[in-house]
Specification:
- By secondary structure, the protein is of the alpha/beta class.
- A 6-stranded parallel β-sheet has the order 2-1-3-4-5-6, sandwiched between helices.
- The N and C termini lie far apart (68 Å).
- Keywords: DNA-binding, Phosphoprotein, Transcription, Transcription regulation.
């Protein structure tokens, strides 16, 4: 028998409407801001609730509008993005969205709590929207330019680590110099974990928040190889989770 007009049809209830993700965009360039507003307010499940020209305005806007994600430029007059970052991270997940991909800038942004680092010209609109959603859920996104900068920093650290090991070996053969070396050796607490250069590189990427897939792409290896490295890293750090390993690696455990 046909149901009477107006009678609800049996079956699954309609999916509830998901409210759009609320964004704050901080960039001193009005053309860039206008372009991002147009991209992110065109039915992609996101909406821009506030704009800011520098870090101070971003902080005030975040307090007032409570966005789900903050898109933050690095170089802005007044309070720049890196200076504002520690004040913004407690208010909402922050994704750096900038033309700057200098090694020290990328590293400092991730160290201060940025959930992602996107360099203009290295992503499509779809990738930007996906990155915004992933950062909101705690999944980091880093575009190739930022990844290269991060790897440059990690390789530099690995070189310094190797040089330090050479100095330590010299100290063993020359005991009289040991007392002069102790302050430097104290800063190399990571050497006690005895990670290989590749394992140290991967552990740094884990500490930055990268997933196995992102680490594989950054290091040009397979995810299976990443997992094998992580198993060995966890064994050496006497850890069972990424958070435990990161805490020990960063010296906060």
């Amino acid at each position: 028998m046909r149901p009477l007009p107006g009678t609800p049809r049996p079956g699954f209830p309609p999916a509830p409407d998901t409210p759009p993700l609320r964004l704050l965009i901080a960039d001193d360039n009005p053309v860039v801001r206008a372009g991002l507003v147009a991209l992110l307010s065109a039915g992609a499940g996101t909406t821009v609730v506030a704009e800011a020209r520098d870090g101070r305005e971003a902080y005030e806007g975040a307090l007032r509008h409570r966005p789900d994600v903050i898109l933050l430029d690095v170089r802005m007059p007044g309070v720049d993005g890196i200076s504002a970052l520690p004040h913004l991270v407690p208010l909402a997940p922050v994704m750096m969205l900038t033309y700057s991909h200098e090694t020290q800038t990328v590293r400092e942004a991730l160290r201060l709590g940025a959930g992602g680092y996107l360099v203009h010209g290295e992503f499509t609109t779809e990738q930007l929207v996906r990155a915004v959603r992933d950062v909101r859920e705690g999944r980091p996104h880093v575009t190739p330019g930022a990844t290269r900068a991060l790897l440059t920093a990690l390789r530099s650290d690995a070189t310094a680590h190797t040089n330090l090991n050479s100095v330590e070996k010299s100290a063993i053969s020359e005991p009289q110099a040991l007392s002069q070396l102790q302050p430097s050796v104290g800063h190399s607490f990571r050497s006690r974990f005895r990670l290989s250069e590749r394992e140290a590189e991967i552990m740094d990427l884990i500490a930055s928040g990268m997933t196995n897939q992102q680490i594989a792409a950054a290091c040009f290896i397979s995810e299976k190889t990443v997992k094998n490295h992580i198993n060995r890293i966890f064994a050496k750090l006497h850890s069972t989770t990424r958070s435990q390993a990161t805490a020990k690696w960063l010296g906060v455990a």
